[in-house]
Amino acid sequence: MEHWNALLVTHVVAALFVLAVGPVQILRRRRDRIHRTMGYLWVAAMYYVCFSSFGIVSDGHFSWLHGLSAFTIVTVTLGLISAVRRNIPAHRGNMIGSYIGIAVAFGFAVGVPGRSIPLLLLADPGTAVFVAALVLLSVGVAYASLIRGDRKIIVSPARSNREPRGDNSGDAVVAQRR
């Protein structure tokens, strides 16, 4: 479609990433390295979505969505600062609030006729579904690779590149990835 440009496409892809990662971050029980790593990616994508929105205007005017973007920049920043300071209730509140804000914006972007996403869904639904599936797959692969990196690796003495020492040389070596 002729009104889709690189800014709009990257804005939508980053927003889909934020929407896909958010529930997993909120609902996962463990707050570990995976949570922190995906959280930093989520924050970066959220900042991109918010800042890029100021380059997307209809009829040359800002809308309430731009106000929501400015507010979200503040809440994401407060959430990040709260996490660094280990103020978990404030972190949780700011990040969940930021997620709710982007979910509302997404609902508006998809639900209002005449906006870019509904027009794409009508004109080329296959592309829209493909892009959404690609984003979901990317999020799944990112989580899977982080989870895999947390596993302990059993290394047998025969496979290690070191010389046997004579003491406990038959025991397997357990290494921890960090």
Automatic annotation (TrEMBL):
The chain crosses the membrane at residues 6-27, 39-58, 64-84, 96-114, 126-146. Pfam families: DUF2306. The keyword Membrane applies. Keywords: Membrane, Transmembrane, Transmembrane helix. Residues 158-178 are annotated as: Disordered. It comes from the Bacteria. This is Membrane protein-like protein.
